[in-house]
Structures are given as structure tokens and as C-alpha cells.
Amino acid sequence: MTNDAKTPHILISDRDAGLPYSKGLMASQVMVTGLSPSRAYEVAEGVEARLSQAGVSSLSSEQLYGLAVDVIEDLAGDRYAKNFLRWREVEALDIPLVVLIGGATGVGKSTIATQLAARLGIVRLVATDAIREVMRALFSRELMPTLHSSSFEAGDALREPPTRESERVVLGFREQTARVAVGLNALLERASVEATSAVIEGAHVVPGFFDLESRADRILAVPVVITVEDEHVHRSHFLARSAEHVGRPATRYVERLPDIRRVQRYIKSQALSHGVPAIPNYDFDHTLAAVIDLVMERVTARAAMPRPATNGSKRKAAKGWSA
Questions:
Q1: Coil, strand or helix at 121
Q2: What is the rounded CA–CA span in Å between residue 72 and residue 158?
Q3: Interior CA angle at 59 toward 54 and 63, to 5°?
Q4: Cβ count within 10 A of residue 301
Q5: How far apart are CA 115 and CA 131, in angstroms?
Q6: What is the pLDDT of residues 151-174, one digit of tens each?
Q7: Average pLDDT for residues 141-158, to the nearest whole number?
Q8: Residue 280: strand pairing partners
Q9: Burial of 166 (0-12, 13-18, 19+ CB in 10 A)
Q10: Cα 92 to chain center, whole Å?
């Protein structure tokens, strides 16, 4: 007989039909803190163990969340416990959450965006390259040539390129970004009208090219830029991606790495001038956790505006799970 079979069901009293405690469900909720799946499941097991040791057969959702905060704090630290509390504010948001993740080619923004959407339970994930593909189908190369090149190669398509190489790369990228920004702003407007949360990622998520101020009362937008400061690490990303994805040879990207790095410097300068955080991606787990921290901070600030209750009072109210 397995251990699970020996463990009696622990019912959540305020859920429909008194549904039992689920380690899988708890682990998925804990992952929004930034913890890895294995660490999140460790927390879920710790919650179950404490309930079993206390002989608890039934408890409310609030009591369960209070216990989860204690276990997270003990096993992972205060940073992750705070994020778990902040997530309750995300669930109570009265406007959609839109996270915008920018960065040059090869910095890892797509992987971070995918994992972030999964952790936050956001089903709408859009890449700006998809916007560019649609626009390429509508506008010919003759009409909008920069749309038909990669972000770091758009300078090659300029009709009147400047003499300096660095200017050519940035000017081509700026022109392409300005075109794609039309679709990006349309996505932001749709999110505000439909009240739908989303994660938008891509090289064209460049601060200064999308309008958040006019929609500040209708969406909670959290822009961030991902960078790779070390050129050797940046190059290794392309080699790893080439090994994982057939049809994406690293040679092309490595040869154009100086141009990709020029694009990164421009995006980073735009982030700094517009007050958008630039997070270096040295380690995936730490970078994802840093982005989640940023999202939680912005959500908490927004949630605190109309709601007087504090995290401390909520945690105190959630105590008393044991007999």
C-alpha cells in the first residue's frame, strides 16, 4: 500500500463538495512565487505533513493559505512567502495584467515569457514576431522592406542607409519596431477592452514605442527588458538553441552577434531612459524569479490603492489552522 493510500483525505471545507487537499494543485499555486516545480512540490508535501501531524481533517482555504505561507517561509525564505501573499492580490485585481518582456535576439525572453505565463496562469501569450509575420503578409517587401528582415538585419533593408555601421543597425531596427508597434498597441487596447491578461514578448517590446500611460486605468502593464551582458554567454545561447531546434542554425546568429549586441545596447538605453527595469539573464531560475518579483511588486502597489487590507493583516487572519 502506498503512503498516499494511508493518508486520510484532508477536506477544504469552503470548496465545492468539500474537495480534498491536492499536492499538485498546491504546488502549481506555489510556483507563482518563483520557486522551481520541485521546490514547489516540496512545499506542498510540507503542508500535507503538518496537517497530518496536527490531525487536521478539514480546514478553510484561508487557513490553508496561511499554513502554506508558513511552510514557504521555513523552506524557501521570506521573499517567496511574500510573493505567495502578493499572488492573492493578483487574483483580486479589477483590471487585466499585461506583462511586456523585451530584449534582443537570444537573451532568453521567449523561454522566460512562456514559463511566466504558465506560473501566473495567463493563457494569452503573444510574440511580436507573430505580429511582424501578419504585417509581412499584408505589406510587400517593396512597401515596407524592414518588416521582411530579422530585427538585427533590418538595417540591411534601409533604402538610404547611413555610412556608419552602428547607425545602420539601430536605424533599421527602429524603423521595424515602429511598424510592429502599431500591432503591439492594438494588442494592448484589446487587452484593456476585453479585460484579458496577457504576456507579450519580443525584440520589438522597446520602451518608448508603446503607449501605457493612456491605458493606465484599464490595464496593469509591467514592462521589463531582459539582457545578457556577457558576450560569450550570449553566443552560447545561440549554440544551445541550435542544438535544441532543427532549422535554427547558430552560424547566422553568431556571425551577426555584433549587430545583435548593438540592438541590445539600444533597447537597454531605451529602458533606462523610460524607467523600465533591465534584468540581466545569467541564470534562468534567478531571472524568472526576478521578473516574478517585479510583477508581484507592481500588483501589490496597484491592489493597495483601492483596498485598505494589508498583507500583514491577511496573514494574521489566516492563522489558526490547527486545533
A1: coil
A2: 53
A3: 90
A4: 12
A5: 21
A6: 998 988 888 878 777 789 999 999
A7: 89
A8: 227
A9: middle
A10: 18
Cα separations in angstroms, 168 against 108, 152, 158, 262: 25, 10, 8, 10
Tell me the mean pLDDT in the region 110-124: 92
| Residue 113 buriedness (CB in 10 A; 0-12 / 13-18 / 19+) | buried
Q: What is the pLDDT of residues 168-224, one digit of tens each?
A: 999 999 999 999 999 999 999 999 999 999 999 999 999 999 999 999 999 999 999
Q: In this structure, which amino acid lies at residue 91?
A: E
| CA nearest to 238, candidates 221, 218, 252 | 252
Strand arrangement of the beta sheet that strand 125-127 belongs to: 125-127, 198-202, 97-102, 220-227, 278-280
- How far apart CA 86 and CA 80 sit, in angstroms, is 10
Amino acid at 250: A
Q: What is the rounded CA–CA span in Å between residue 217 and residue 195?
A: 12
Q: Which residues are CB-neighbours of 32 under 8 A, at least 6 positions away?
A: 83, 84, 87, 90, 119, 120, 121, 292
Start-to-end Cα distance in the chain: 29
Rounded CA separation 89/297 (Å):
10
pLDDT at 1: 39
**One-letter amino acid for residue 173 of the chain:** F
Residue with cell 518588416: 147
